[in-house]
Amino acid sequence: MDDLAIVAQSANDLQLLLRSLEQYCHVNDLVVNINKTKVLIFNNNGHRMNKHVFFYQEEKIENVKIYKYLGLTFSAFGNFSMAKQELKKIALKALFKLKKEMGCFFRSKVKVTLQLFDSLVKPILLYGSEIWGIENDEPDSRNPIEAVHITFCKPLLGTSRSSTNNACIGGTT
Question: Is the residue at 3 inside a domain?
Answer without folding.
Answer: no
